[in-house]
Amino acid sequence: MSSRFAIDVPPELIDSARSGALASLERLYRLFERPGHNLALRLLSDPEDAHEVLHDAMLSAFRRLHQFRGDCPFWAWLRQIVVNTALMRQRSRRGHDAHAQEIPDFESAVPDAGPDPLHLAEAAQVERALDLLPAVTRSVVWLFCVEGYSHPEIARAMGQSVSFSKSQLARGLARLRRDLGVEATSHA
Fold first, then answer.
1. Last residue of a domain, one of 72, 93, 114
2. Mean of the pLDDT values across residues 26-43?
3. Which of 31, 39, 72, 176 is 20 to 30 A (C-alpha) from 128?
4. How would you write 57-109 as a 3-class SS string?
């Protein structure tokens, strides 16, 4: 599994979109529609919420195109907007959704207990197992393992501590290993 966000966007397309050219805005939307929806779906596990997050994030990005300085790839900038929008949706939903209950934060992370289950199991099995994780844990696992975010980046995005991110990842991977029947021995 890997992020599909790494799409090179010509600077001319961004400049054209900044000037308000509808064809350029539509082209940017079409380029990132699928990866944006997939990322939101992974973080939220609800197709309707993912669809709304995609639209909200793209509108936000289009309104803020003048803020894109080009010091990172456009796709990374847009991906962060999608992540932030999805996490805001997740926070607002948390009180209403029993499935989104968090695993508590612990000061020290659970030590790594073996191979990454996301790379050892069949994709369909991983999808089902991810959907069973609490929303916050699923988000941390996805952002770290698939999107390549660091623990400090995840902590900052979620308004939590680095140890929170590490403990959620360790607990999420342990649960995935258990649910997928992946052996928990380390391959040194």
1. 93
2. 95
3. 31
4. HHHHHHHCHHHCCCCCCHHHHHHHHHHHHHHHHHHHHCCCCHHHCCCCCCCCC
Show the domain range for 171: 99-180
Please check whether residues 41 and 106 belong to one and the same domain.
no
Q: Any idea which residue has 């995609």 for tokens? A: 54
Considering the domain boundaries, does residue 6 fall inside one? no
What is this structure's pTM?
0.71
115 located within any domain: yes
Model confidence pLDDT, tens digit, residues 85-98: 999 998 887 654 44
